[in-house]
TrEMBL record, chain A:
All copies of domain Cysteine-rich, residue ranges: 3-85, 132-216
Native source organism of the sequence: Salipaludibacillus neizhouensis
Family: Belongs to the LutA/YkgE family.
Superkingdom, taxonomy of origin: Bacteria
A GO CC annotation given for this chain: cytosol
GO molecular function: oxidoreductase activity
Name this protein carries in UniProt: Lactate utilization protein A
The protein's role, per its UniProt record: Is involved in L-lactate degradation and allows cells to grow with lactate as the sole carbon source.
Any coiled-coil regions, as ranges: none
GO biological process: lactate metabolic process
Pfam family of the protein (one): CCG
From TrEMBL, chain B:
MF annotations from Gene Ontology: 4 iron, 4 sulfur cluster binding; metal ion binding
Record-annotated 4Fe-4S ferredoxin-type domain positions: 310-377
Protein name per UniProt: Lactate utilization protein B
Residue numbers binding [4Fe-4S] cluster 1: 313, 316, 319, 373
Family (UniProt): Belongs to the LutB/YkgF family.
Residue ranges of every copy of the LUD domain listed in the record: 70-295
Positions contributing to [4Fe-4S] cluster 2 binding: 323, 366, 369
Domain Lactate utilization protein B C-terminal: 385-470
Gene Ontology annotations of biological process type: lactate metabolic process
Main function: Is involved in L-lactate degradation and allows cells to grow with lactate as the sole carbon source. Has probably a role as an electron transporter during oxidation of L-lactate.
InterPro entries named among the record's database cross-references: 4Fe4S_Fe-S-bd, 4Fe4S_Fe_S_CS, FTHF_cligase-like_sf, Helical_ferredxn, LUD_dom, LutB, LutB/LldF, LutB_C
Origin organism lineage: Bacteria, Bacillati, Bacillota, Bacilli, Bacillales
UniProt entry keywords in alphabetical sequence: 4Fe-4S, Electron transport, Iron, Iron-sulfur, Metal-binding, Repeat, Transport
């Protein structure tokens, strides 16, 4: 099965290779052939959520062209995939683009969603020793509607000592530009999240969205705390 | 009172809210309690999503045929001797209400809880003509006693106050000398209010749902105050937003259950009152004169727009009870009598963007509200739509932001530029992040690093790794 990877701009620009590399390796281990369209950029969410929809359409058109050849688009971010699925709304009044936008939306999957629902695999054969908890991410659960796939996969990772995060459904306060535009509010939200993470006594917080992880991890670092954040792709790619 | 409750700037209000530890504790406890109870009763009901679909359908259908049902309702009220007045705006509504009160020579008015009367500033209009208006909902009464402290929640208006603060208010204003035990406080309020009920010549109520087929109004309370307000005074005036209507009792049945479950986590509240027309011969109580004021005040402008579904709202506050922003800043920070997610959607629609342009941005778009809403209003999408209008039509974004977004869009649709950007990114981030990721850059990055570190970008980029591998190199 040929899979086109949409890395997302955060994994592309703000982080070292780990998340993308783990995504590629996990998918290859499951028999997928990876295609990485080099012209890919960003899903457009920063502009979209800020109200700049004309600008978002330019970005969306570029992404549609870039991934038009793909059979499946897989991305290690629930939030960015939710944005790809938003494209048809952007082109509601544009008969030329709406069909193309729909096609893109229909073939886009978040990584864990793709593994569980398309590849129909729940045990990727990973092994990882550690005391962990998991942050569910609002866009993954509520916008994309994917509430189960990450947990199904994590359950089968050998060695994980898992504690559920209290108030796990609560937002971490990232929200893209919200994190800076509404800084004082975002700060309260992320602090509450960090407090809940500490209540679990976990050493590692796993998440499936780099936006949330950058926010929570950045706050944990600033407070000099020792909890580490890791993307779920890195956990699924861990082997003994 | 009107919709607007503060002249302070948005961020000053937020700052005040965040620093009010008493309020925040009260809000967060109330949220947990209300949300927890809601989850219990919806699980017990079963098929919650189907009930939501059905409720959405009922509300959509009603709004699409609003003129028909309003007409039917008005006809049925009139047939039974009631009076209906359609008010285009707040002023018209208040003029009508004050004229009824004047005609009755009434001085003492008792009210049950109603958001729309707050919206139109009815109390002030009545006080201006010399009336004594008493709120009979316990929460509203507390706020009224406390020098008209504005409500901070649409179902539990005094949510921001704890029992100690309430005791203090009672003591200061009514020489209450007992403890802050909630039962004792409530008992005192009941005794005080009883006098007002008996003295009132006019009772004014809101309306949870009006039933078109029978010309009835229904009121949902836990205190029974609406029942007293509609049975003791000779004249009853019901004030309702024009969207607050259902076709028949069958739909009312469904929506009332959804309302009680979503609002307070009860299967039904203690009192659900249905009122049709005036007192008939042989009735022991009920009003002799009955008026319904149907208020537009900006609502019909919303019909037919992308915001139409906001009028589906049944004012249950479920969206407020799950909102993390509301949790930390409290209701007063919104600057409107309608706080929380529905407030951030509704307030700019009713009052314009000028005073409320920050509200749609005061959301992380986590969509907890949309998930909680029993009538499936896509609240977070409507917040984005507000943002779009603020940027594209109102031109209210800053020059710097416009420029940044143009630059972003150009970069993100031009691969060569984008790749140049991301190649520079790790170095860029490292430079501004400083060795430990806590350096201060400029603009959004400065704000980000005010409270958080940036990721430490060590090691090679994905693209480099991928290219190497493609070339057959080892990683
Ligand atoms: S928007 Fe929905 S959840 Fe919020 S108050 Fe209205 S009906 Fe309730």
């Amino acid at each position: 099965m040929k899979v086109s990877l949409f890395l997302t701009c955060l994994a592309d620009a703000a982080y070292p290779a780990d998340v993308g590399r783990s995504t590629v390796e996990v998918l290859e281990r499951l028999g997928c052939e990876i295609d990485f369209p080099k012209n890919q950029t960003c899903c457009g969410q920063p502009a979209y959520n800020s109200g700049f929809h004309r600008e978002t359409r330019d970005v969306a058109k570029h992404m549609i062209r870039t991934f038009e050849h793909a059979d499946y688009i897989v991305s290690p971010s629930g939030s960015c995939v939710a944005m790809l699925k938003e494209y048809p709304h952007l082109f509601e009044d544009d008969p030329e683009w709406i069909g193309r936008a729909k096609k893109l939306a229909d073939k886009s999957y978040e990584l864990t969603q793709f593994i569980v629902n398309v590849l129909e695999v729940e045990d990727v054969g990973a092994e990882f020793e550690g005391k962990v908890t998991y942050h569910t991410s609002c866009h993954m659960t509520r916008l994309l509607g994917e509430r189960e796939a990450p947990m199904k996969l994590l359950k089968n990772v050998k060695g994980l000592n898992f504690t559920e995060l209290p108030n796990k459904q609560q937002c971490c306060g990232f929200g893209g530009t919200f994190s800076v535009k509404m800084l004082p509010i975002s700060e309260q939200m992320v602090d509450e999240k960090v407090q809940h993470i500490e209540e679990t006594n976990a050493d590692i917080l796993i998440g499936a969205d780099l936006g949330c992880l950058m926010n929570i991890g950045g706050r944990i670092d600033r407070q000099g705390k020792s909890v580490k954040v890791m993307h779920i792709a890195e956990i699924l790619n861990s082997q003994k | 009172m009107g919709v607007k409750i503060s002249n302070e700037k948005f961020f000053d209000r937020v700052d005040k809210g965040i620093k009010d530890t008493f309020m925040r504790k009260a809000v967060s406890e109330a949220q947990s309690r209300l949300e927890g109870r809601k989850i219990e009763v919806t699980e017990e009901l079963g098929n919650w999503e189907d009930w939501r679909d059905l409720s959405e359908e009922i509300r959509q259908h009603t709004l699409e045929n609003l003129d028909y049902y309003l007409e039917q309702f008005a006809r049925n009220v009139a047939k039974q001797g009631g009076h209906v007045f359609f008010a285009g705006n707040a002023e018209e509504a208040n003029d009508y209400i004050t004229s009824v009160v004047k005609k009755k020579n009434a001085k003492n008015i008792v009210k049950s809880k109603s958001m729309v009367t707050e919206e139109i500033g009815m109390n002030e209009a009545l006080e201006e003509i010399g009336c004594n208006v008493v709120e009979s909902d316990l929460g509203e009464w507390i706020l009224q006693l406390d020098d008209h402290d504005p409500p901070s929640h649409i179902v539990v208006p005094a949510l921001h106050k704890n029992k100690e603060q309430i005791r203090e208010t009672f003591n200061k204003k009514r020489q209450y000398d007992k403890t802050s035990d909630p039962d004792e406080l409530a008992k005192f309020a009941r005794q005080e209010l009883r006098k007002d009920f008996l003295a009132a010549e006019v009772g004014i109520t809101g309306c949870n749902f009006a039933v078109a087929e029978s010309g009835s109004v229904s009121l949902v309370t836990n205190e029974g105050n609406a029942r007293l307000a509609t049975t003791l005074p000779e004249t009853q005036i019901t004030v309702m937003g024009m969207e607050r209507i259902v076709p028949t009792w069958k739909e009312l049945d469904i929506l009332v259950t959804m309302l009680c479950r979503s609002a307070v986590g009860q299967k039904l509240t203690s009192y659900i009152t249905g009122l049709t027309a005036t007192k008939e011969q042989g009735d022991v109580d009920g009003p002799e004169e009955f008026h319904v004021v149907i208020v537009d005040n900006g609502r019909s402008k919303i019909l037919g727009t992308k915001f139409q579904s906001a009028l589906q709202c049944i004012r249950c506050a479920a969206c407020i009870n799950v909102c993390p922003v509301y949790r930390h800043v409290g209701g007063h920070s919104y600057g409107s009598i309608y706080p929380g997610p529905i407030g951030a959607v509704l307030t700019p629609l009713l009052e314009g963007y000028e005073d409320y342009k920050e509200l749609p941005f005061a959301s992380s778009l986590c969509a907890a509200c949309t998930d909680a809403c029993p009538v499936k209003i896509p609240l977070h999408e409507q917040l984005v739509e507000h943002r779009r209008i603020i940027v594209e039509q109102e031109g209210k974004s800053s020059f710097g932001e416009k420029l940044a977004m143009k630059g972003y869009a150009f970069g993100a649709s031009t691969p060569s530029l984008y790749q140049m950007g991301i190649k520079g990114a790790p170095t860029f981030i490292n430079t501004i992040a400083g060795k430990d990721g806590d350096g201060k850059g400029a603009g959004p990055i400065k704000l980000w690093t005010d409270i958080r570190n940036l990721p430490k970008s060590t090691g090679q980029s994905f693209r480099k790794w991928y290219n190497n591998r493609e070339k057959g190199g080892n990683d």
